[in-house]
Amino acid sequence: MATMPVAGLPPVSTNHIADVVVRNAKIYTGDPARPQASAVAIKDGKVTLVGDDADVAALISTQTRVVDALGRRVIPGLNDSHLHVIRGGLNYVLELRWDGVPTLRQALAMLREQAARTPKGQWVRVVGGWSADQFAEKRLPTLAELNAAAPDTPVFVLHLYQSALMNRAALRAAGYTKATPDPRGGQIVRGRNGEPTGMLLAAPSALILYSTLAAAPTLQGEDLKNSTRHFLRELNRFGLTSAIDAAGGFQNFPDNYSTVIDLARAGQLSLRISYHLFPQTPGQEIDDLQRWISMVRPGDGDEWLRLNGAGENLTWSAADFENFTEPRPELAAGYEAGFEKAVRLLMENGWGFRLHATYDETIRRDLAVFEKLAADGLFPAGNRWLFDHAETVSRDSLDRIAALGGAMSIQNRMSFQGEAFVRRYGAGAAAEAPPVRAMLDRGLIVGAGTDATRVSSYNPWVALHWLISGRTVGDLTIYPPQNRVSRETALTMYTQAGAKLTGEQDVKGILKPGFYGDLAILSDDFFTVPEQDIPHIESLLTITGGRIVYAAAEYEGLDDELPTITPEWSPVAHYGGYQATVKPSISGARQAELLGQAVAESEQHRQWRAQRGFTPAATPDIFDTCFVL
């Protein structure tokens, strides 16, 4: 039966009614055919219409959730192309995050309070997302400060890929004594008496840091799901709707993947995850890859959880390290033989891969293997493959990567390690570490990400600020203008490029009909906010697949309620995750201007009250003892 038009609108089939409409917005779509809009409609998880408010009006019914953006900026959901989201989720609620903390004094106060509430047998662990250069004091905590803050509770503080600090209780818990030998590639710093001081050094391998952290208690059972759901919500807080998990050490398949698999089955993921598989046992890499190839193929899964390939290590012997306080590592002679077997196996079976490579020396050796295999027709062969990090990649290597059909994924590790890089290699070398513009000029796909959570923060706006400003979290400018990118280019690297790296460029990264309904309403307009305020942007409302997965400010309560954080003593339960601070532009003259506005509003309020008889019309005499003789 035909329905009566309402308010002059023609009847619309219920098949076309939108589930969600966002209106009254400044939408950056990423679609060259329609780059700007004011409204978007989503049904069954996908965008059905992008236009203005009048265009979407006909798709609204009483069943449609209508979100008024209040004139705010809306962007496609962000996609971190290199995030250790699976491992990060398994540990999130156990970690005291110093991400964004402005002073060491505040960081130590948080540590002291957390130690007091942490039960016996558990550790206080600060694992990544911060740098000593972000603190006003510009230094690390001392071992004496850690011991004073937590005399009885084990404390482990990881600082980048460089070092870790442990208090005396943590040394006892980890079993480090005078007799403990230094592991290969690492150093246990000792005092004059030979006893460990509590300082661990990556020299240059960070395995000593991560193996020590692995000795701490872990979550079990439902707590793993709880932790992962809260971590995903924290990522949604910043407008992230997708991430490519780069796997990593101590992330075994399938055991450490079971939590996200269970959440995907239950429909409880709020972030789309494409994951990689990383052989964990040296000498067994080929066997593991062969086993996985017989079980699954890249692309298997669905829009929420899917396999993307192998890496970021294929063989342990081919991996370099990224500790810029140490000399470049010398990789084993002849690692190419095993590495070639792994690459050939993957390429012949249609698997893509990603490779951790910090230095051009490593990249050149890897490229020589690929060029050898190209003679057999294996490169370029349509498989998606890429280099990660690549801080010192040369232009010649970039040309070779382009010729072989490769891509790049870069992360803002230099936001946190830029000062260390400059001290070792000089400002000239740091100016192109990595050479972002040279990558883009060659037409390479260049995805952007963070490499969180053990070094960089997971906050994507810190990474976007790094790309645009060329500055570290310690406010050191390391990149000249010619190696920075525009805001639009940076956003494209954080949306469309990531989709291309997973083969989802036809459904993700742009707001247009047929694409996923993934978007974020921002607290500030990314395109006009002062540059120094970019790291302070957050999402006020994040939608993934037409579902509101994060809501704050005026929208608070529109997202699904999560279970209470467990365990109850969790640092995240008390401090949250990333520590937001006042925007830099809200200081100095601007602060005085805002105070002036407040004074004017106060006088208007006084006049309003006087007009209604709530207060005397005359200004009362003010008695000030400073003027009493």
From TrEMBL:
InterPro entries: Amidohydro_3, Metal-dep_hydrolase_composite, Metal_Hydrolase, YtcJ-like. Gene3D superfamilies: 3.10.310.70, Metal-dependent hydrolases, Urease, subunit C, domain 1. It comes from the Bacteria. Signal peptide: none annotated. Residues 65-550 form the Amidohydrolase domain. One of its GO terms (molecular function) is hydrolase activity, acting on carbon-nitrogen (but not peptide) bonds. CDD domains: YtcJ_like. This is Amidohydrolase 3 domain-containing protein. It comes from Micromonospora krabiensis.
